[in-house]
Amino acid sequence: MTAAFTCSKTFSGYPCCHRQWRHPGHCRFVHGYSRSFTCWFKATALDAHGFVVDFSSLSSLQAQLAEQFDHTFLVNADDPLLEQWQALHDQGALDLRVMDNVGMEASAQLVWSWANALLQARDGGRTCCWKVECRENEKNAACYTAVPEWFGATPGG
Known about the structure:
- By secondary structure, the chain is of the alpha/beta class.
- The chain has three helices and six strands.
- It has a single domain, classed as Tetrahydropterin Synthase, Chain A, CATH 3.30.479.
- Helix content is 25%, strand content 32%.
- A six-stranded mixed beta sheet has the order 4-3-1-2-5-6, with helices on both faces.
- Helix 2 (82-90) links the parallel strand 3 (72-76) and strand 4 (96-99).
């Protein structure tokens, strides 16, 4: 395995609500959490400032997180009440975000994809996000872990 430098950054304070409509228990009801996300980054070499990732350069990722998760209502695209949720959104009662899967695991994967799109475009394979933890509270979290196939590739190679 090739050596790599790593670091992590936590983004927190994204209060939102959702429901898992297929769940037979209480998770089928609308409920909310203040989500947080920890992203783990890896680099083949440090940048000119000695960083894996300059945390101040992640403002576009932070903006995506706020747009998706800050005071929003997350609903699965196949939720049988989608039409009603959309009507409430149109009336200004909630800020609707329709997702394939509102769960913590799928949310971690979504954020992983956003982080890697940013890093690949910017760093050309020097850096990647290899893990994202999506936390709904101090007790419960889910992770998505994968190294993008392009990580470590030389530009143009």
